[in-house]
Predict the structure of Glutamate--tRNA ligase.
Amino acid sequence: MSRPVVTRFAPSPTGFLHIGGARTALFNWLYARHTGGKMLLRIEDTDRKRSTDEATKAIIEGMSWLGLDWDGEPVSQHSRAERHREVALEMVERGEAYYCYASQEELEAMREKARAEGRPPRYDGTWRDRDPSEAPEGVKPVIRIKAPKEGETVIHDKVQGEVRFPNKDLDDFIVLRSDASPTYMHAVVVDDHDMGVTHIIRGDDHLTNAARQTLIYKAMGWDVPVMAHIPLIHGADGAKLSKRHGALGVEAYRAMGYLPEALCNYLARLGWSHGDDEVMTIAQMVEWFEIEDVNKGAARFDFKKLEAINGIHMRNSTDERLFDLFMKQLPYLEGGAEIVQNMPDGQRAQIRQAIPGLKERAKTLVELLDGAGFIFAERPLVFEEKAAGLLTDDARAVLATLHADLSALADWTLESTEAAVRACAEKSEVKLGKVAQPLRAALTGRTTSPGIFDVLIVLGREESLARIKDQLA
């Protein structure tokens, strides 16, 4: 019987959860959920100078916002340093590793000699078979693995296929430094083994590490996990992803008004596909995801495609769901925190009422917030130049008639207000647009908004009549 799948996401807390890391987390999460397994979270904080609590918090917040939950408590790699040392010492006892007393000067001389002879600059194995009794006084040794000198180390990768590494190129790398701290290469293997990780899914920039890490597994007699090295993300121009392409933290995408499920959908499609399906729910991604279906080639990040997918997810959301997402994300949108802080009673209900009309015109929550600007606007309104131009003397005369007609309504409903506006156009012998356009300007200060009858209902009788009256003075 095969073991249950256990994947892991193992970020270094030296910065925010960037978009490439988010996709790696997503692929691990999808595969674990698809197979009914678990995904674990390990914070690789062994670099004490660069690791920060703020970065750890940002990574956890970013994953939580995306909906990528993990099983159990997050594991700190730094807290496991004693276990890493224990395994390194066991490797020495097994004859699979050894103490190396080479000084920095000796190591540099080895590198220089290798360069002069046209060889890669590597450690030459001086202490590999020497007796520790020959060690110079006062030198704290490192522990190096005894890498095989002949043959190959083969990685059977679920994405890259069979990848072969000549053992002569792997050298006797360090597993424990002279201060008894573990190297990244060593700590990762010990942690993955102890955490029961069965599948390692990570960026293909780790592919060369896979060979060295396999040597540690074999030295300890441990099972080597299944490996899948996914391609990196490039910009739309094919160059390595940079900030101008979208190599930002996940929190930046939240501030730009993308929905978490839309961002997951887009990231899943960067390197993985399911037929011609572009837009997918989280449930569909979990159902369809197979790690073998990930492409070998680098994926290209395209903001326009992300925006289009986000717009579709917004329109596909129920009004209640989109309202909830908008209110949760509002404090993170530009100007949103101030709106939340100063939101009067009743404005939440107005926003909820406006959602059906707003979501048809918006591709992001930032655009939705912009479209809802008429709700937050205070009298007297500040007018866009084009909107102000619509309020001519003739237009104001029509608005005066409309104001009287609307004031006389017994009920303020979508049907009654629409009937009044249409009747006013007929009575004034003008087309509907000649009433609707100046009315929109008077109510919103803009030339674009949700449907004008929706605006009248959202603002309500008192505020609508007051805004129209302001333009008649």
User: Anything to note?
Assistant: The chain is about 50% helix and 10% strand. The chain has a mean pLDDT of 94. The CA atoms of residues 108 and 121 lie 9 Å apart. The longest strand covers residues 38-43.
